[in-house]
């Protein structure tokens, strides 16, 4: 799909990054209903689930069912997260056609996630790329690109060094730099995207995945926009949370980004009223840790309108 010059693509990640942070198991029909509600708002790209160890993340044990349900929504680009080549094969066998690989710049973080060094994960990613069917699309998420919960701020040179073998495996990929902890700042975001776009001009596209832990989610998105990025991850109702920052709200809220871009005259293709309806369903999930501001502001206006 070709976007207008003044347009962004918002990737709704609540059904994966958001749901995985919820403790009580969300019934599969409820998950599907939320995906359908987000789709009805105009969302056309969504990270709907992840193929991971079901013992480590039982919330995502119904991934094959979510993939099947998402495939029934015409025009929905449903991507699924896969941390290793083995899980990528599971996703492909379930019918997924847009894979979202992930590895961390931080060795300690990557070892904690998949018990491999970043370079070992890079080699595994190369195997994943080599095995990709021709009708499939790949996205690559670089976690801890700005900050690691264990060791602090990530050096720019470390990100560039890890990207070398990853881009060598394939440049026909969208690469998302991820602010895993939400501790990035606009100057850091702008500088890192400037550096990677200069060093790797052959990469098909760049994206930003931000969290709102310290209230800078939208500001960091705007910094990435200024640096030329046009694809942004977000979660309805700011669903997410961060285990390393108690009380943090998790992903930048989709409704906050749609509000910001709409008022900048930048097209998102998402209807705000319907998005708020979907976000309210997300916010009502038992155990959900939510954030964002626009949902509450519009909700208050709705209450005033009803009262009058």
TrEMBL record:
GO terms for molecular function: hydroxymethylglutaryl-CoA lyase activity; metal ion binding. SUPFAM superfamilies: Aldolase (SSF51569). GO terms for biological process: ketone body biosynthetic process; L-leucine catabolic process. Signal peptide: none annotated. Coiled coil: none annotated. Belongs to the HMG-CoA lyase family. This is Hydroxymethylglutaryl-CoA lyase. It comes from Sphingobium amiense.
């Amino acid at each position: 799909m070709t976007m207008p010059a003044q347009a962004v693509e918002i990737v709704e990640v609540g059904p994966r990054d958001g749901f995985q942070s919820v403790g009580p198991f969300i019934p599969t029909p409820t998950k599907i209903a939320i995906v359908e509600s987000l789709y009805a708002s105009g969302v056309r790209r969504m990270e709907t689930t992840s193929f991971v160890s079901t013992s480590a993340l039982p919330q995502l044990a119904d991934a094959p069912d979510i993939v099947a349900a998402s495939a029934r929504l015409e025009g929905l680009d449903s991507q699924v997260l896969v941390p290793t080549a083995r899980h990528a094969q599971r996703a492909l066998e379930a019918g997924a056609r847009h894979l979202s690989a992930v590895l961390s710049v931080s060795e300690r973080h990557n070892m904690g996630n998949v018990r491999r060094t970043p370079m070992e994960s890079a080699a595994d990613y190369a195997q994943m790329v080599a095995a990709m069917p021709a009708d499939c699309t790949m996205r690559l998420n670089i976690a801890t690109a700005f900050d690691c919960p264990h060791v602090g701020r990530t050096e720019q040179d470390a990100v560039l060094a890890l990207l070398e073998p990853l881009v060598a495996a394939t440049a026909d990929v969208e690469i998302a730099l991820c602010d895993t902890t939400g501790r990035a700042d606009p100057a850091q975001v702008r500088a890192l995207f400037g550096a990677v776009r200069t060093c790797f001009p052959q990469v098909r596209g760049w994206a930003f995945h931000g969290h709102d832990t310290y209230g800078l989610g939208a500001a960091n998105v705007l910094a990435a926009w200024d640096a030329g990025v046009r694809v942004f991850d977000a979660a309805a109702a700011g669903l997410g949370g961060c285990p390393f920052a108690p009380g943090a709200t998790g992903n930048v809220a989709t409704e906050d980004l749609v509000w910001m871009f709409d008022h900048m005259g930048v097209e998102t293709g998402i209807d705000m009223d319907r998005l708020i309806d979907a976000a309210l369903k997300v916010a009502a999930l038992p155990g959900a840790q939510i954030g964002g501001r626009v949902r509450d502001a519009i909700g208050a206006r709705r209450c005033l309108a009803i009262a009058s």
